[in-house]
Design goal:
globular, about 0% strand
């Protein structure tokens, strides 16, 4: 659907694209800022604590103060680290997290985003690049805790990428498209229900795999504080540490947006504007990830990988084959 590829790009087209990217980046930075605040508040309430309440009214400026602190802290590079790789690894980890948002339709008009015919593949391929930044950061730090965290993250993210992709392909089979806008439209035309109903089994596989992909509790093995200090970013400080944290929370938003689009009808809903329905559904998914973090214990690494290869992948393959058979017959 990229019609502008058929002709040379004009200066105005490029300016509009750049402006749209800046607007989306600013919006995402604001969302991430208050997503972190919301997480700290929610977990505080669940653990019978108050949470941030000092900086600004109700603590609303606490995350902003934390970001400013990170930006002015000294950027330390360990003496025996691979300096070049150490410096660029956080950037490699962050950029894919922002780029995947290019195909997420926030509303029916999908303003500032692209209605790509390969949106699902684009998301999966770009998100996989973050693994490179994580492994590079752990290896280049020349720190045993960082290296172990990087290796754990690579094993975990690669293992759970497979069932995640399979669960999404089942939705692609039902909709007949990899265009995320068309997938939302297909759910509107599906008899009375979103894809969460016929693909409930696939959704369970997706949400478990997504939690592992995000390195969230109970799958936060790559940065297990009690074992690895801070995992793959143990040696990072200042704004490079902030890049890793920013990538993590941008992916929380992006994965929630993907789940909303694929299984819950995207912007579809009665009475309210489409963008508001989208925001409500995404917020519910974000709350779910925080809720799980506050309630679930961390599992062991061997349990994590065994569960993916011996349980989730066979179930995802079974769900994919069953969906293909049903769609062929019906």
């Amino acid at each position: 659907m990229f019609t502008w590829l058929d002709k040379p790009m004009s200066g105005m087209t490029f300016l509009n694209m750049a402006l749209g990217a800046v607007i989306v980046l600013g919006f995402i930075l604001g969302v991430v800022t208050y997503t972190i605040y919301f997480e700290r508040k929610v977990i505080g309430w669940m653990q019978w604590r108050i949470g941030p309440n000092r900086v600004g009214p109700l603590g609303l400026f606490q995350t902003i103060a934390d970001v400013l602190k990170l930006l002015i802290k000294e950027d330390i590079v360990p003496a025996k680290a691979d300096r070049t790789m150490f410096l660029i690894a956080p950037i490699i980890a962050f950029f894919p997290s922002f780029m995947v948002l290019a195909v997420i339709p926030f509303s029916a008009t999908h303003i500032f985003t692209a209605a790509s015919n390969v949106g699902v593949i684009y998301y999966i391929a770009l998100s996989a690049l973050t693994i490179i930044g994580v492994v590079l950061g752990g290896w280049a730090s020349n720190n045993k805790y960082a290296l172990i965290g990087g290796m754990r993250s690579a094993a975990q993210m690669i293992s759970y990428e497979v069932p995640l992709a399979m669960s999404l392909l089942a939705v692609v089979l039902m909709s007949g498209s990899m265009n995320l806008v068309e997938i939302v439209e297909a759910q509107k035309n599906f008899p009375y229900v979103w894809y969460i109903v016929p693909q409930f089994f696939g959704f369970i596989i997706f949400i478990i795999s997504a939690t592992a992909e995000l390195n969230r509790t109970p799958f936060d093995l790559p940065e297990a504080e009690s074992e690895l200090v801070a995992g793959y970013f143990t040696e990072y400080s200042g704004f490079r540490f902030a890049f890793y944290m920013l990538a993590e929370y941008v992916y929380v938003f992006a994965m929630s947006a993907l789940a909303t689009t694929m299984y819950f009808g995207g912007w579809e809903g009665p009475f309210l504007p489409g963008w508001l329905w989208f925001a409500i559904k995404v917020s519910a998914f974000i709350f779910f990830f925080f809720w799980v973090r506050a309630t679930m214990p961390r599992i062991r690494t061997d349990q994590l990988l065994s569960f993916s290869w011996k349980v989730l992948i066979p179930l995802a393959l079974l769900n994919l084959v069953a969906t293909a058979v049903v769609m062929t017959l019906v």
